[in-house]
Amino acid sequence: MKALTLTSALHLEQVDGWPDPEPGEHDVVVEMLGVGLCGSDLSVYDGKREPAAMPWIIGHEGCGRIVEVGPAVTDRSVGELVVIEPNYCCLLCQWCRRGRTAQCERRGIVGINRPGLLSQFAAVPARFAWPVPEQWPVERLVCFEPLAVAQGVVRRSGVRAGESCLVVGAGSQGLLICLSLLAAGITPVVSEPQPGRLALAVSLGAKPADDTDRRYSYVFESSGVEPGFHDALRAADKTAVVSLVGQNTAPFSVVTQDIVQRQLTLLGALIYDHPVDFDHTRTALGDLDLAPERILRSRATPARADEALAAAREIPGKSWIDLSDWSA
């Protein structure tokens, strides 16, 4: 099959003879139609995060059509359009048994310790291939996985319509948090230094933050950088919930007295829990005016995927790779 393989940092190349996937009895084979790009893909592409092997297939925000089902699969069919939940929890460890599958001790992470999805075909455990309506466009489906993250973050924060709310950072995840809040009847205020990203957030319905000392009951920090973290804490009102979505391995300074005295709740938000969050997101996409494809700003064919990855950090909005035609 054809695949896009990472052969070294900052170098992705198309291979025509990559081995076809070998599905297990509980797997399905999906012919890939599209893959969204996100920060974890870029960290592997940049060489900041080490893949399981080289060469390596990256990409995890994928969708496609089932072309083969394993002999033990009874609830998926050839021809179904699916989105892939790319974190394969074991369902056996203590965290999975508690329903906190994001903490699974044996989690298979597509594109990191499991082969990614930037290929013609991918073998996927059937329970992690979610059927979706035929009328949903590929552009919507490549946004499904990160939308599941955003939906879970908003839901777990406990925010309700009428509450004051700030989103720090308007990268892809910040934009999807904005869309999730707007669909819930909440108009978020957005703090973002990059003009293009801020303009996109405002075009979706968010309001730009001003320079006042306004405080918020709910704050969503999506940038993952120290200035954003401190902005989030400064903007939090007494007893506020601060959801931390962005990640960084560098240590940040923090005054615990300030957090304690204001009785802030810091809520770490890591991906999603299976099966609740993907199921909730599929329902929300059918019931609410979300249209996450509105954040897409860059589409690339397989031949231009290397360029797309190199440019993705600088483009306001989200980038994706269209895998429907490998000859383009």
UniProtKB/TrEMBL annotation:
<dbReference type="InterPro" id="IPR013154">
    <property type="entry name" value="ADH-like_N"/>
</dbReference>
<keyword id="KW-0862">Zinc</keyword>
<dbReference type="InterPro" id="IPR050129">
    <property type="entry name" value="Zn_alcohol_dh"/>
</dbReference>
<dbReference type="GO" id="GO:0004022">
    <property type="term" value="F:alcohol dehydrogenase (NAD+) activity"/>
</dbReference>
<dbReference type="GO" id="GO:0008270">
    <property type="term" value="F:zinc ion binding"/>
</dbReference>
<protein>
    <submittedName>
        <fullName>Probable alcohol dehydrogenase (Zn-dependent)</fullName>
        <ecNumber>1.1.1.1</ecNumber>
    </submittedName>
</protein>
<keyword id="KW-0560">Oxidoreductase</keyword>
<feature type="domain" description="Alcohol dehydrogenase-like N-terminal">
    <location>
        <begin position="24"/>
        <end position="134"/>
    </location>
</feature>
<dbReference type="InterPro" id="IPR036291">
    <property type="entry name" value="NAD(P)-bd_dom_sf"/>
</dbReference>
<dbReference type="InterPro" id="IPR002328">
    <property type="entry name" value="ADH_Zn_CS"/>
</dbReference>
<keyword id="KW-0479">Metal-binding</keyword>
<dbReference type="InterPro" id="IPR011032">
    <property type="entry name" value="GroES-like_sf"/>
</dbReference>
<dbReference type="Pfam" id="PF08240">
    <property type="entry name" value="ADH_N"/>
</dbReference>
